[in-house]
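Quick one from the shared queue. A colleague (R.T.) flagged Nitroreductase domain-containing protein as missing a structural entry in our internal table.

Convert sequence to structure tokens.
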Amino acid sequence: MDTVTPPESGGHTINWDDLVALPPYSSSRSAPIVGALDRAIAEIDAAVGRNGDTARRFVPSAGALYPYDVVITDPEFCSAAVLDPVTRKLRVPENTPLPTDVDHYGWMVIGRPWLSMRKYGRRGYLYHLLDIGHALVNLGMRSGRDPLSARLRERSVGLSEQLGGVPRAIGVIAPSASGAASGWVLDIADPAAPRTRNEFEQTAVAIAPDQSPEPLDLAGMRFDDTWPAVSPRRKSAPRFGAPGSVAEAEGCLDAAIASGRENLMRLNIAAPHLTMVGRAELDRYLPQDELSVALAGQRHLCGPDAVVVMSAEQPHQNCVDPDRQRMLLAAGVIGQSIYLEATARRLGVTGIGGIDPRAWRPLLPPGHVAFYVVAVGADIAAATEAKLDALTAEGHLRNRELTGSGVRR
Ligand SMILES: Cc1cc2nc3c(=O)[nH]c(=O)nc-3n(C[C@H](O)[C@H](O)[C@H](O)COP(=O)(O)O)c2cc1C
């Protein structure tokens, strides 16, 4: 087992200094964002940002943690700024301003696995890749084919060191002259301000796989025409209602999976193994309380009309090599395709990372381990109802207490 090296305070206990010593605050100033840069940010905001004035974002995320940053760069890749959808600020260093009126801007998604790992431990590394995969569909819908992306790809590795994380995907946005205004502001930071990670974040980085794949270039992706318009309605069902039509749910999964697979072929990455299970089969293999066990006690998510179980064989060396990482991004791409298709068909949908893989085994090919389930059914919750897994520090364990479901061990 890895051990966490205690900080220099000497010893395992928390000292007073740990509570009161902070890096000096370095002030930043704000400025309006204008021109094409503002419209490019509006495009990215509409893909992965906040939905109006709510806390809800256009993409789902396990525990609502959003463990990645989106970075925007100029065509010459001289400057890079981090978008912060929560405060709607574009953090840009004082000495390298982004040009405000160019035809194209590049973007990159940089993984921040520790944001998930500090809640979910090592399993959080999985969630950060699934979450990024979900975001890639929305970003792909707004990114065009562009010769600039080849240059951005070349540059992205060098920039990753500068930006403190692995770039998982790149794309190019051509803001249209009539595009919406973003309503964001520039947050101009002092370049000398230190960027610090606490010791838990450093541990997360230290135990992450040391090799990562080249970033995906989303230029070639294609999407159903209805998806951009329905994406603002997307949400995760907090619970499922009375049984609906299994044929509708399975039709939705079929269409979404076909679209997802096509895009994965264009990206040249392998999909995970997908097993579609309708309600009758769920009742047969996981009767009564066993579905709630399979969903790690999330009884409120029982009652979907159909689910897709994503699984993979145990790798020989038990490692998360670059191909596995790509396959997990691919799983997120399939997941988001299901979210958008279900939203278009007015079905409830939710990703479910809190599962008990042992319970799903009888439904899978021999040797396969389930790692992610996406469920479709009738959503009875109001749009404002909160997701339990996003509310609590203990995530799925706390769900068991809240819903009182039994867990077989
Ligand atoms: C990879 C992944 C795993 C998730 N796992 C669960 C889960 O186990 N239980 C659950 O209720 N919701 C789960 N969700 C849904 C999130 O809770 C939801 O996206 C988040 O709370 C934000 O809510 P919204 O999607 O409605 O905007 C998951 C979402 C993703 C992308």
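Residues 25-218 form one domain.
The chain has two domains: 25-218, 222-403.
Added to the table.
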